[in-house]
Amino acid sequence: MNTGTRDSYWELFKDTKILLMYSQYIYSLILYTVSNKHLYNMNNTIHKYRYDNNLHLPIINLSKFNKGAYFSGIKVFNHLLEYIKTFI
């Protein structure tokens, strides 16, 4: 791409439409969560008075589980906008 070693790669990523590593990780977590939605519980099925589209976040004290794809996927999914969650 004829760039120097001190050039910024941000514009190259935008021009070639490649996601950055952090964005790819978030995208893959959302895809994993949506494709395996049968493994998750919704808040409105567990709490009778809650009518949101968030996934239920289990209370677990193991740090290895908290850093995994299952738990992180719930956190990322719950931060999506409500109208996006209704389409999924």
Descriptive report:
By secondary structure, the protein is an all-alpha fold. It has one domain (18-87). 52% of the residues lie in helices and 0% in strands. It is elongated, with a radius of gyration of 18 Å. The model has no long low-confidence stretch (mean pLDDT 85).
Describe what is shown at a glance:
By secondary structure, this protein is an all-alpha fold.
Number of domains: 1
Question: Helix- and strand-based class?
Answer: mainly alpha
Write down the overall geometry. Answer: elongated
Rg on CA atoms, Å: 18 Å
Terminal Cα separation, in Å?
37 Å
**Portion in beta strands:** under 5%
Percent of residues in helices: 40-55%
Largest sheet: none
Our count of helices gives 6
Give the helices and strands as they follow along the chain.
HHHHHH
Give the tally of β-strands.
Answer: 0
Stretches where pLDDT is under 50 for at least 5 consecutive residues are none
**Mean pLDDT across all residues, rounded?**
85
Write the layout of secondary structure elements.
Blueprint: H1 10-16, H2 21-35, H3 43-46, H4 63-66, H5 69-78, H6 82-87
Helix pairs in contact: 2-5
